[in-house]
Amino acid sequence: MTGLLLLTGTGVASFILSGRAGTLAGLLTTVYCGVGVLVAVLSFLLMRHYRAEEVERLELDKIKDKDASAALFETGEDLLRAKRAREQFEKYVVPAWTVLIAVAEGSVAYYLFDLFKNPDLRAPTQQQGLLFAAFFGGFALLQFIVGKYCTGLAAYDGSRLLRPVGSHMMLVSLVSVATTVSLSASSFGFVKFDLHVAHGLTALLALLAVENVISLIMEIYRPRVKGREVRLLFESRLAGLLGQPGGIFKTAATALDYQFGFKVSETWFYRYLERVAALLVLLWFGIFFGSSCFVVLEPHEEGLLERCGKPVAGREVIGPGLHLKMPWPIDVVHRYPSKAINQFHIGYVADKEKEAERVLVWTKPHYAEEYNMLVASRDADQTAGDQSSDSTVPVNLLTASIPVQYEITNVLHWARNHANAAEFLERLAWREIVRYLVSVDVADIMAAGRIQAASELQSMIQAAADQHQLGSRIIFVGLQDIHPPVKVAGSYEDVIGALQERETKILVAQSYGAATVPMAKADARVAVLTAEADRISKVQAAYAEGGQFANQVIAYKASPEVYRRRSYLNTLVDSIAGARKYVIGTTNNQDSYWIDLKDSISDALLDVDFKGQMPAENEGQK
Questions:
Q1: Residue 486, SS3?
Q2: How far is the C-alpha of 159 from the C-alpha of 232, rounded, in Å?
Q3: Would residue 315 count as lying in a domain?
Q4: Which residues have a Cβ under 8 Å from the Cβ of 397 and sit 6 or more positions away?
Q5: Backbone angle region of 469, left / alpha / beta, with phi > 0 → left and psi within -120 to 50 → alpha
Q6: How are beta strands 395-408 and 472-477 bridged, if at all?
Q7: Based on the domain organization, do 361 and 427 belong to the same domain?
Q8: End-of-domain residue from the set 188, 214, 245
Q9: pLDDT (tens digit per residue) in 5-15
Q10: Comparing C-alpha atoms, which of 425, 427, 368 is closest to residue 401?
Q11: Whether 58 and 86 share a structural domain
Q12: Is 561 within the bounds of a domain?
């Protein structure tokens, strides 16, 4: 009960002080106190069950002593209700409470790890840092005294239920000491030390949660030895190890003996390991600190060398290769990929499976998540003066996948001028891209204006980076994927299809007009020229006929008979020039001529006997 009250009081006080001091390590102290409260409550309840069971057993023994022959109490074990209650409590409540402790530790650790990602975390105050450190130091002293007393008292028989509370209180005292050191360091200007301590304490909290889960699993499969004391499920071996570092091997031996069911601590290997363990630990620490004196930077890296948190004069920036430095944590090297091409994405969250698809369509997402951006609409600007137009809007939504590639040109500016330069550069790129998109037309940037837009965006982001002295150079800004949002892509395609169909019909009509009008003009010109040629031909023919008539008169006057005969024969020649003519010769008969002016050969012409005489019915034709 004393431990429960002390943990509750120091936990509440730690929460108030950590809020005013702005220390994350103090907040972790509150969490550890809360976990200790859960352990103390369970130990207190279980201790009351054991006490009730003992009182009940003493009462039963007292009754048996008064009337030893009473058969009613010969089977008194069945009447021990407190014992059965304790057994049920250990069977159901203790495992469930242990699971609750593990879940609480794991959930808080997960929440804190997510909280550490926030770049706006407030640093511990430096004005009253030593005062707050003194408070946490006082808490550590009280927790250590009570915890040490509990663990010492737990060594006696019948007081083992004090061991979980004492071990956890010793652990909380160490956490309070870490918070004291963190606040003291912050008061001297080492503000990042608090965050590092918080990271370590959160990792320890997650490790305690994992240990509780493993203990539950191992409890199921451990060998049951009759008469062997059962270890409490909610008792953390790790807390006992950290709370009492002097008994590391004793704690490890007890855990191994309990888990395997025989004296592992009495084997020759364990005893040999116990003798040389200190030497092995020292050797390991020597190797660790010796190896930390060397640092190797890759060809694409540059490093910033810091000694006790401050740059080393003359060696602020070290290049690729092997370098010698003071051991950790005196000298620390921060690596930066200054010679490599770095990249971040604007407008989407990458997904390797979807990016591997070869066919990309507007109606299907291409990435894990795509963001919509506002883009101006030129059509809306043109119809702004038309108050009756409700079909146009001043902006449109557009999904753009924009990879930005950059390189670090000045490591000092990149590391010193901003807490997180990479994230800051990404935010600058977001700002410039949003500003640019609201000033361009959606149709232009999706078509021919994409290359110009990429070039302008690169210049704008570079100017913003130079203004804030980021020490970086923008190499490439790609507009590789610009399309309407997936939800409206189908409707957008319908509109684009209708516009293309309208444009196609306009071009077809223009081509028909371009072909028909010149043809009509050519036909008209041909008709005009044909009429002109016919007029000239007829006029000249009339002139020729007139001249011919004058010559004919002269010829007629010279020889009328010859002229008439010649005219007759010329007319006959002209008339029968295209007709087929046949000459039939007969013998022993007077000469006769048969002229058929038809194109076809009449059968009557061929119906002649060999004597050259025509039939009687053909006399008329002859």
A1: helix
A2: 12
A3: yes
A4: 372, 373, 374, 375, 484, 485, 488
A5: left
A6: antiparallel
A7: yes
A8: 245
A9: 988 999 898 88
A10: 368
A11: yes
A12: no
